[in-house]
Design a protein that fits this description.
InterPro entries: HAMP_dom, HATPase_C_sf, HATPase_dom, His_kinase_dom, HisK_dim/P_dom, HisK_dim/P_sf, PhoQ/CarS-like_HATPase, Sig_transdc_His_kin-like_C. With 458 residues, the chain is an alpha+beta fold. The chain has 8 helices and 14 strands. It folds into 3 domains: 155 residues; 78 residues, no CATH class; 149 residues, Heat Shock Protein 90. Strands 4-3-7-6-5 form a 5-stranded antiparallel sheet.
Length: 458
C-alpha cells in the first residue's frame, strides 16, 4: 500500500522541526560544556584557595612538628565537621595531619609531590563517594633544620558540584524546550499565513468542481497569479471547446438527418418496386438509427473536472413522462427513490441518455412496475460525492449467461421486441467515459432485471 504524500505544511513543519531540534541540541550541548568547564575551573580555584589558606595558617615547629591553624581560622567551617564532604590533609616525611572532617575516612591523600608541583584530579572514586582533589607540593623552611617537603591535599565531594550542574541543566533544557515549542508554534503560524493563498486556490477550485463558481477570482500573490490565470484560461478553453464540439455535432446531425428524411419521403411517395422500396427504407431507417447512435456516443463528454452539477430528480421526471406516453398501453407504474441532493456531475445530455436508455429498457420489459433509485456515495476527502443509479423492473429478467451478450452493441434481448439493441451500448459508452461501473443482475424486490451504475466520486 502506497504511503500518502505529506502536505506542504507538514513537510515544512517536519523539516523546520528537525533543523530546530538539531540547532537547539547543538546549542544546548555547547552551553552545557561551556558551563561545565567554567564550573570545573571555579571548583579548582576554590580548592586552590583552600590550599593557600592552609599554607598561611600552618606552622612547623623547630622540632619538625606540624601546628595546624586555630579552628576559628579555618578557610571553611566544613573542614571541622565530620562527613561534611570537604576534606584536607598535610603529608610530609614522617609527618601527617588530617582535618577533623577526614578522620576515619579512606581518602586518596597518599601522593607526595615535589615542591612547586600542583595536581588537580577528579572525580576520583573513594569509599565515601567520588571527590575532586587538588594537591600541591611545597618546601617548608624550618630554622635550624633546613627545608621540609610537604604536600597539601584538599578534596571536595562531587555532590555539591553535581547539584549545581543539575540545576543549571534543568534550567537550560527547560528554556531550550520552551523556546523550541515557541519557535515551532511561530513557524506554524507563519506557514499558515504563507500558505493561505494556496489554500484559497484549492478551495476555489473545489467550488468550481461543485459548480458553485465559474472561475478563479480574487487577488493572489505574484507567484500564484500566473498559475490562476492559466487555470482560468484552461477552464474557459475547455468550456469553449465543448460548446464548439456540441455545435458541430448539432450541425452534423442536421446535415445528415435532412437528406435521409428526403430520401425516405421520396421512396414512400413515388411508385416503384414495392420490394425495392421496402429494402431501401429499411436501410435508410438503419442508417438513421446508426447516425443517431454515433452522434449520441460522440456527444458523451465523459468525466470532467470542472463540470457543473445537474439535479437528477427533475430530469428523471421529464424522461418518465415521455416514456409513460410511449408505453401508455402497458400502464406502467414508475416509482422514484431519489436521495435529496442527488446530482450528476457531467453534461445534462449524458445524464438524459443514461437514465433515458435504462428506463426505456425497463419500460420495454416490465409488466407493471419500474423503480428508479439514486443514492449519493460520500467518501471522506473527496471533493464531490459519487452517485449510484439503480433501475429495476418486474419483467422476466436477464439470465446470467446472457448478460455479457446482451450488452454487446446491436444485440437485443428478444428479436420480437422493437429496437435495434443500441440503447444499452450507449449506456456502456457513457459508463466508460465517466469511469463508472455497470452491474446487471436480478432485482430482489421486483424480480426482474436490475441495472446498477456507480459513478465515482470526484
Amino acid at each position: 500500500m502506497s504511503r500518502r504524500p505529506l502536505s506542504l505544511a507538514a513537510r515544512s513543519t517536519l523539516a523546520t522541526g528537525l533543523a530546530l531540534a538539531a540547532f537547539l541540541g547543538a546549542t544546548g550541548f555547547a552551553l552545557d560544556r561551556a558551563y561545565y568547564e567554567g564550573a570545573i575551573s571555579v571548583l579548582r580555584d576554590r580548592l586552590q584557595g583552600y590550599v593557600y589558606a592552609y599554607l598561611a595558617g600552618f606552622e612547623v615547629s623547630r622540632y619538625g612538628k606540624l601546628i595546624p591553624p586555630d579552628p576559628d581560622k579555618l578557610p571553611n567551617p566544613d573542614f571541622s565537621r565530620p562527613g561534611s564532604g570537604l576534606y584536607a590533609a598535610v603529608i610530609g616525611e614522617g609527618l601527617r595531619w588530617d582535618s577533623p572532617s577526614a578522620l576515619g575516612r579512606d581518602l586518596p591523600f597518599g601522593a607526595r609531590l615535589a615542591p612547586g608541583q600542583t595536581q588537580f584530579r577528579g572525580p576520583v572514586p573513594t569509599k565515601v563517594g567520588r571527590v575532586y582533589l587538588l594537591s600541591q607540593g611545597v618546601a617548608w623552611l624550618v630554622p635550624n633544620r633546613g627545608e621540609i617537603n610537604l604536600t597539601f591535599h584538599v578534596a571536595e565531594n562531587e555532590a555539591q558540584f553535581e547539584r549545581q550542574l543539575a540545576a543549571y541543566r534543568r534550567t537550560l533544557f527547560g528554556w531550550m524546550a520552551g523556546l523550541g515549542v515557541a519557535l515551532l508554534l511561530l513557524q506554524l503560524l507563519l506557514l499558515r499565513w504563507s500558505l493561505s493563498p494556496l489554500r484559497r486556490v484549492s478551495s476555489d477550485l473545489a467550488r468550481i468542481e461543485r459548480g458553485e463558481r465559474e472561475r478563479l477570482s480574487g487577488r493572489y500573490p505574484p507567484e500564484l497569479a500566473s498559475l490562476t490565470r492559466s487555470l482560468n484560461d484552461f477552464i474557459q478553453s475547455e468550456r469553449e471547446h465543448l460548446a464548439r464540439y456540441r455545435n458541430t455535432l448539432a450541425d452534423l446531425a442536421h446535415s445528415l438527418k435532412t437528406p435521409l428524411a428526403v430520401v425516405r419521403s421520396r421512396l414512400e411517395s413515388e411508385n416503384g418496386s414495392l420490394e425495392l422500396r421496402r429494402d431501401v427504407l429499411d436501410q435508410v431507417r438503419r442508417m438513421d438509427e446508426i447516425v443517431a447512435y454515433q452522434l449520441s456516443r460522440a456527444a458523451t463528454s465523459g468525466h470532467q473536472t470542472f463540470a457543473a452539477p445537474v439535479p437528477l430528480a427533475p430530469h428523471a421526471e421529464e424522461v418518465v413522462r415521455g416514456l409513460e406516453k410511449v408505453y401508455a398501453a402497458k400502464n406502467i407504474l414508475c416509482e422514484f427513490d431519489i436521495e435529496e441532493g442527488a446530482r450528476f456531475y457531467g453534461e445534462q445530455g449524458d445524464l438524459l441518455e443514461l437514465i433515458g436508455n435504462l428506463l426505456e429498457n425497463a419500460f420495454k420489459w416490465a409488466n407493471h412496475r419500474v423503480l428508479l433509485t439514486a443514492r449519493l456515495q460520500i467518501v471522506r476527502g473527496a471533493r464531490r460525492p459519487g452517485l449510484e443509479l439503480i433501475v429495476e423492473d418486474d419483467g422476466p429478467g436477464i439470465p446470467e449467461d446472457k448478460v455479457a451478450l446482451l450488452l454487446q452493441r446491436g444485440v437485443r434481448g428478444d428479436e420480437r421486441v422493437q429496437g435495434h439493441g443500441i440503447g444499452l451500448a450507449i449506456v456502456q459508452d457513457i459508463v466508460r467515459a465517466y469511469r463508472a461501473e455497470l452491474e446487471v443482475d436480478r432485482s430482489p424486490e421486483l424480480g426482474g432485471a436490475r441495472f446498477r451504475v456507480r459513478l465515482p466520486e470526484g
